[in-house]
Every structure is written in C-alpha cells, then in structure tokens.
Amino acid sequence: MTDNSKPLDPQKIPRHVAIIMDGNGRWAQRRGFHRVRGHVAGAESVRVVTRLARQLGISYLTLFAFSEENWQRPGMEIRVLMALLRRYLHRELSEMRDNQIALKAIGDLSQLPEAVQRDLEQTIAATAAGARMDLTLALSYGGRSEIVHAVQSLAREVAAGLLTPEDIDAARFARHLYTAGMPDPDLIIRTSGEYRLSNFLLWQSAYTELYVTETLWPDFRENEFLTALEIYQQRQRRFGLTQEQIEALNGKEPRD
Ligand code: IPE
Ligand code: IPE
Ligand code: MG
C-alpha cells in the first residue's frame, strides 16, 4: 500500500488487469541514454508488477509488449526488443513455475523471429499447469487485425455451412478472438501520459475502466501499481445502468 492511502479492498481486486507499458524510450532519452536502455529498465517493471499482481490475487495480467505497428521501428530497436524478450523468458521461467503463473501470448505470433517463437512455445508449455495467474504477453498484437482475423474465421464457418449468419452473436464472436476464454479486462493502465488505446484490446475494452498515469513504464513499480488499483476500487462501474440500480445489485440501500 502507498503511504497515506487506504489499503486495497480484497473483495474488489480486479480479475483482469491489462497494461499498455509505454514510455521506455522517453525514460532513457531524458537520462541521455539510447532508447533501448529504457526497454532494459522496463523489463524490471514487468517483473515487479507481475509479482505483485500474483500476490494480490489478480487472475489475469495482460501486458502490451509489442504492437503490430511497432514493426515499423528501426531494425536495431526491434532486434534489441526481441533479444530482451528471449532473455526475459529464460530468466523468469523458474519464478513463473514456482508461483503457478501460466504464460500465454496473443497477437500474430507468426511474425516473430523463429527463435522467439520457439522460446515462447517452450515457456508456454512449461508453465501451462500454472493455475494462479495467466500472464499474457501481447506480441505483434493489433486489435483491428484480431477482429479481422475473427471475422475471417467465422466467415469460413458460414461458407462451410457450419453456421448461419444469425448464429453469430457477441459471445460467439469473442470465442474467435485471440483472447478466447479470458474475461474482458476490468482495468487498463497506460503509463507515460498518453490518452489512447493504440489498437490494444479494442473489442475487449468496451466496459473497461481506464487509468492513465504520467509515470513512465520503467518508473512504474509497486507504489504506482497500488495507486492505480486504489483508484480503480473507487470507481463505480455502471455498465449502462443507473447508480440506484447498481447499488441495489450490490445489496445497498439506494441513495435518494
Ligand atoms: C513502450 O515504450 C515499449 C514499446 C512500445 C515496445 P516506447 O518505446 O514506446 O517509449 P516511448 O513512448 O518512445 O517513450
Ligand atoms: C503502444 O505503445 C504499444 C506498446 C506499449 C507495446 P506505442 O508507443 O507503440 O504507442 P503510440 O505509438 O504512442 O500510440
Ligand atoms: Mg511509446
């Protein structure tokens, strides 16, 4: 818990937290370093936040690590990011296993270098039994491509006569996304002060609470994460209902 703040309500721990880990480059440049130093520092935030999420009982943590659009960055930066990803997978395997964390990945993984794909597959297989938390890395991920991919998959089923167009509803559609089987995120955190989704979880974020902090990702550690969760716990999620309806559902006397 942060200084001068309330402890978290264990009844209101979000089930699924997703994070747009942004600001690594600026963190490094402000220190006169090359951008890639920021990615190295950001990897430590991933460790810290993952550990705390697991301790708090968050069941799903999804981290936006590399977007489809990030392929347009300089080749050297991409190579460093891929090397850091491999190093991260090797270093964290035992911690994931010890803590019953299952690694997952979403995105167009076929675009990743073969060595990365291999390491990912091995880590996913080696942690598959982890029942306490799913740690999902969004890699070569784009929300629009994910939706297009789902549409193609459904269209193929219709064309094959397995489905009629009327069989397609939101629940069936969601089962064709990369996130099939995962609950929608309760909270999306974005670091570095940018108020945008940058093509992250477009379908899944329909009713997600959004939290933006100016803190750059390499500086986002325990206290910043706890602050985000405290602010989340103060939100009232209404899903289109009135405040009175929500309070009745929560078993409270409606306010007049
Ligand atoms: C986020 O940090 C990491 C990735 C997108 C891979 P950035 O590299 O985008 O950092 P800024 O936004 O340039 O500071
Ligand atoms: C979003 O950050 C992608 C990741 C955090 C991996 P970007 O830095 O790529 O987003 P924009 O370009 O500022 O929207
Ligand atoms: Mg950025």
Q: Round the mean pLDDT to the nearest integer and report it.
A: 96
CATH class: Alpha Beta
The low-confidence runs, each spanning 5 or more residues with pLDDT under 50, are none
What CATH calls the topology is Undecaprenyl pyrophosphate synthetase
Return the domain count: 1
Which structural class do the helices and strands define? alpha/beta
Structure summary, number of beta strands: 6
The CATH superfamily name is: Decaprenyl diphosphate synthase-like
Sum up the overall morphology in one term: globular
For the report, how would you describe the main beta sheet? 6 strands, parallel
Number of helical regions: 8
Span of the ends, CA to CA = 34 Å
Cα-based radius of gyration, to the nearest Å: 19 Å
Would you spell out the secondary-structure blueprint of this structure?
Elements: E1 16-20, H1 24-30, H2 35-56, E2 60-67, H3 75-98, E3 101-106, H4 114-127, E4 133-141, H5 143-159, H6 170-174, E5 187-190, E6 209-212, H7 222-234, H8 243-249
Helix pairs in contact: 1-2, 2-3, 3-4
Bound molecules: 3-methylbut-3-enyl trihydrogen diphosphate (2 copies) and magnesium ion.
